[in-house]
Amino acid sequence: MNNLYLEHFDRDTFLSEYWQQKPVVIKRFFPNFVDPVDENDLAGLAQEAEVDSRIVSNTNGQWDVAQGPIEDFDQACKGQWTLLVQGVDKYIQDVAPIMTPFNFIPHWRLDDLMVSYATQGAGVGAHIDQYDVFLVQGKGKRRWRVGKPDNYAEILPHPKLRQIEGFEPIIDVVVEPGDVVYVPPGWPHDGETIADSLTYSVGYRAPDNLQLAESLAMMLDRGEAQNRYSDPKRAPQRAPYLVSQNDVTALKLQLINAINSDDFTLALLEAMSEQGIPEYPLDTEVTLQQVSNEFAAGISFAPAPGVRALITEGKHGLPRAMFVNGTQFNFAKTDSEWFEALASGNVLNATCCQDAPSFTFLKTLTTLLNNGYWEWYEG
Ligand code: SIN
Ligand code: CO
């Protein structure tokens, strides 16, 4: 297997040859990388109840896992340890530039940014993830080994730690700040820390059938695209215990029709935009009039950390709409520029587009501000 180390990154080559196919090391993907957070920021987040964090430690071969919120760091940080914090992009705006260069993969596939701090010699052990990940090396140095997918023996050195045994590395590399290792789902990997190290994991998601079926069930539960089996003018059959292929086909078709309905399209789009971000409604709601005045006065707005909107363009059976964390906002074709400016995640103000913003746009912005998905930008 050649070319597992890239000196120069090319998006098209990456998509056609590596994404979901094989791992690759991209040296100096971020030139002059500067860490936007440090271990103290991570420790601060790990104390919060709503943040998903854990400390994995190894003391003379004895593994332990402390699940966050972490109250006693002295107790949890023993031996060689790694502090891992999930969803850092939802709490710290400054980490966003680490995810931006991977924008060639659409936002709906993106899950979150996990950041870990590992001490010399530490790691979480050899394991397999079900999702793609770009491992961005921050400060420090780490040795990553990546092997081929196979049926490896799984070991549980601790009830909360899944590891595997005995993979042969096809990649064995020491990474430095700004280097990236891409690992597709199912490829075993192991990161051993050479010098106290920060690792930023840009993690993806890919729904399985059960998750898709949950969207279907949710839509049907709302009474949309609901239908019941019926069989007028049945053909007579030889015996009552026989099941005909026609009947099975009709049952499957009933479900296929529900899946092909516009309502299911919307349920899917809602699920694709769902980020599990809690609403933080404003204490005092702003009115459309206030937002219009502020917008006209040149005030700027930006999405709250981690909020990533999706847009469908009203083509090929899809609606024209914006979706934010499971909520749909329709807009007219003439509003496309303004809604795309919103969904771009960039700082937004009256100078962003040529045309004046419409009532629909300002109303949407007002709603987004009121539920905490967008904020006033103080550059
Ligand atoms: C880590 O940051 O130590 C673990 C990342 C991973 O292997 O998925
Ligand atoms: Co992993």
Can you characterise this structure?
The protein has 379 residues and is of the alpha+beta class. Helices cover 24% and strands 26% of the residues. It is built from 10 helices and 19 strands. It has a 9-stranded mixed sheet with strand order 1-2-12-7-14-6-5-3-4, covered by helices on one side. The radius of gyration is 25 Å and the shape is globular. The two termini are 47 Å apart. The mean pLDDT is 96. It binds succinic acid and cobalt (II) ion. Residues 82, 116, 118, 123-124, 129, 133, 189, 191, 199, 201 line the site of succinic acid.
List the helices and strands and how they pair.
Blueprint: E1 5-6, H1 11-17, E2 24-26, H2 39-46, E3 53-59, E4 62-67, H3 73-76, E5 80-85, H4 96-99, E6 110-118, E7 133-137, E8 141-147, E9 154-158, E10 161-164, E11 169-175, E12 180-183, E13 189-195, E14 197-204, H5 209-221, H6 245-259, H7 262-273, H8 288-296, E15 301-303, E16 310-313, E17 320-324, E18 327-330, H9 336-343, H10 359-370, E19 374-376
Parallel strand pairs: 1-2
Antiparallel strand pairs: 2-12, 3-4, 3-5, 5-6, 6-14, 7-12, 7-14, 8-11, 8-13, 9-10, 15-19, 16-17, 17-18
The structure holds succinic acid and cobalt (II) ion (CO).
Succinic acid binds next to strand 6, strand 13 and strand 14.
